[in-house]
């Protein structure tokens, strides 16, 4: 099986450790991961803000770049959801329609790939911390990943997983929503942080660094002592490597 990593813009620019963690994790599980250098943005920002014409070349480029691969692993439910569900809409009826739709079926958010394709939940991780999990809107409502991330976290040695109250509520990020509706976004984030604080967790994790960036900034400014760590980085951690 040829597997490619689509690292996403946000991870590439701000959270490169997440992409590295995906490679470390998958290689530990016997999967050889390729990183196509031609990859760019998935076009989600353009699509969500109505710039369909600007989005289309990015969608076509994504399909061309990842066409040779059997699986495209994405450490972001948001971008995975864009590629799988909305790329075919962008080029519907066009010359590239078949290829785009075909590649879209091979796109997996990380937890989906681990549980559904590799059929593993115990990935050999060790992470001795109290952790709570936030199911981001795209993982919950677009991809429907369900309890896959939780099943993976429950199998991590040393990890104390605590349930997040009102977990299905949005954190308030929503891409440009946080910019255009800052006051509402902050209020929603404050509600989420109150629930995180209630758990007594040391670490808040999720499948999207975008939401973790939003919540992490608020957690840091409030000096809560709670860290945000992407799911991939927890699953990549081992006792030998020294889990942070």
Q: What number is the mean pLDDT?
A: 93
Structural class, judged by helices and strands? Answer: alpha/beta
Order of helices and strands: EHHEHHEHHEHEHHEHHEHEH
Tally of distinct domains: 2
Provide the spatial order of strands within the biggest beta sheet.
2-1-3-4
Distance between the termini: 32 Å
Shape: globular
Total strands:
8
- Low-pLDDT stretches are none
Write a structural description:
The structure is a single chain. With 244 residues, the chain is of the alpha/beta class. The protein has 2 domains: 115 residues, no CATH class; 107 residues, Rossmann fold (3-Layer(aba) Sandwich), CATH 3.40.50. The protein has 13 helices and 8 strands.
What labels describe this entry?
about 240 residues, Rossmann fold, single chain, alpha/beta, 13 helices, globular
Give a nutshell description of this structure.
With 244 residues, this protein is α/β, with parallel strands linked by helices. Helix content is 51%, strand content 10%.
Secondary-structure blueprint of this entry?
Layout lengths: L2 E3 L3 H6 L1 H13 L4 E2 L9 H5 L3 H15 L4 E4 L2 H14 L6 H8 L2 E3 H8 L12 E4 L3 H7 L4 H7 L5 E3 L14 H4 L1 H18 L3 E3 L3 H13 L5 E2 L2 H6 L8
Helix pairs in contact: 4-6, 5-6, 5-8, 11-12
